[in-house]
Amino acid sequence: HSPSVQCRVDPLGRVEVISTHEQVLGGATGQVYEGCAFPADPAYRLHLQDVGQRVGEELAERGALGRFSVDFVSVPRGGTWTHYALEINLRKGGTTLPSLVLQFLTDGSYDATTGTYRSAFGSELCYYASDNVQSHRYRGLLPEDVFDIIVCDGLHFDQARQSGTVFHIIGAASEYGKLGMVSISGSPEAARALHDRTIESLDRAVTASG
Fold this sequence. Notes:
Radius of gyration: 18 Å
Mean pLDDT: 94
Order of helices and strands: EEEHEEHEEEHEHEH
Number of strands: 10
Largest sheet: 10 strands, antiparallel
Structural class: alpha+beta
Helix content: 25-40%
């Protein structure tokens, strides 16, 4: 697995774990970041939190401030997982935007005791995010076209349901046929299924339009 942990050091030097993720990698070498799923595998997400906290405390001692993330390769061995830290990213990264989208839309908070996120209503929420939804058939789609397609299929984010898909990088669709999206739902499986249904909705619409 290729998980990561995202943390923040505040101006007082306090370290806060923000999220854990399973990174979605692709490309020719299988090492290109394409998206992420929140939260990380329950088998080790709390351990990742602990590691992130320790790294954050060391960074805070050295004057670091703001968000950072740590990327890992995790290998199952004898019923447990061994985590190998690959790099520290001292910046906002690919997992920053989806975590902020979830926070701003649902006004909830991260629960460090379980490694999960709770909405303002107390329900657990997860997401599957992608930076690389791409097809040559999407070229020519305007932002309003993309919104109309998923609204007609009921896949847009709905405050009452606390689930749905939100787009970003949407301005690149018309010229490059590429966009990003965050699909939010009550479980990792449901979030991934919503992500896939959203792509199917877009593909169906552009196929029907010729």
